[in-house]
């Protein structure tokens, strides 16, 4: 299976090199770095699967233009910036980038953002609102619909064993498969309220019906065969769910 090809557009040589090394270590095929978006005109037979582009070039937000250019060719773009300028964020958001990375980079978050951008890429305008509303209604019928590739995948809530957070993204584990969704853990806690999901630490929700074993002495819980840690501040809540004989 060919590796995912990623194009970096970054004028900071040291940051570009660091990013290239991290991406290579994560298993991606990194194309030669482009220093300015205006210098890049990719050939149809050598297109990347995803673009990582800085926002600012020479003090101008030229990276935002890459989003529009690539969307016409069906390629997701993740923007990178060290700026926390709210106006810049709102300006960039109008072009519907597939994600944002704050500098300095964090490899785990970087990988989650890339996976989400690749699996959820679509026209995010009306789709996101419609999907969230649809999922909210479907939860009554014990289903969740998540974006995957170009379409939607129906997940049976009772088959989801674990939801783990990585920043504003979450991984949903279901029957040996994993889906990345651009929503924070607190949102899933709200959506799945009353569905048997228990938070066991700061970053994980588990399906209590899939708990095989737990040990307060070891501060661990086994869910669907996987051993997870129970956070000290969550022990009381976990204990309240138990029916002991």
TrEMBL record:
Superkingdom of origin: Bacteria
Keywords: DNA-binding, Phosphoprotein, Transcription, Transcription regulation, Two-component regulatory system
Species this protein is from: Neolewinella agarilytica
GO BP: regulation of DNA-templated transcription
UniProt-recorded Gene Ontology molecular function terms: phosphorelay response regulator activity; transcription cis-regulatory region binding
Lineage: Bacteria, Pseudomonadati, Bacteroidota, Saprospiria, Saprospirales
Positions of the HTH LytTR-type domain: 144-244
This protein's GO CC annotations: cytosol; protein-DNA complex
Pfam families named in the record: LytTR, Response_reg
Residue numbers bearing the 4-aspartylphosphate modification: 54
Name under which the protein is recorded: Two component transcriptional regulator, LytTR family
Domain Response regulatory: 5-118
């Amino acid at each position: 299976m060919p590796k995912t090809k990623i194009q970096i557009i970054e004028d900071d040589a040291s940051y570009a090199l660091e990013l290239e090394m991290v991406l290579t270590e994560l298993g991606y095929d990194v194309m030669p770095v482009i220093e300015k978006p205006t210098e890049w005109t990719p050939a149809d037979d050598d297109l990347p699967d995803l673009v990582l582009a800085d926002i600012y070039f020479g003090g101008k937000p030229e990276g935002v233009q890459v989003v529009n250019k690539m969307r016409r060719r069906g390629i997701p773009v993740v923007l990178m910036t060290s700026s926390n300028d709210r106006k810049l964020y709102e300006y960039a958001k109008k072009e519907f980038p597939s994600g944002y990375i704050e500098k300095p980079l964090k490899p785990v978050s970087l990988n989650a953002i890339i996976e989400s951008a690749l699996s959820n890429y679509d026209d995010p305008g009306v789709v996101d609102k419609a999907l969230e509303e649809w999922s909210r209604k479907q939860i009554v019928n014990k289903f969740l619909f998540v974006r995957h590739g170009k379409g939607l995948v129906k997940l049976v809530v009772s088959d989801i064993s674990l939801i783990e957070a990585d920043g504003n993204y979450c991984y949903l584990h279901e029957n040996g498969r994993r889906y990345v969704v651009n929503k924070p853990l607190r949102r899933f806690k709200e959506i799945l309220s009353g569905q048997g999901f228990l938070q066991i630490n700061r970053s994980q929700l588990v399906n209590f019906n899939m708990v095989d074993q737990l040990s307060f002495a070891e501060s661990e819980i086994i869910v669907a065969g996987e051993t997870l840690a129970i956070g000290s501040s969550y022990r009381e809540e976990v204990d309240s769910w138990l029916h002991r004989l």
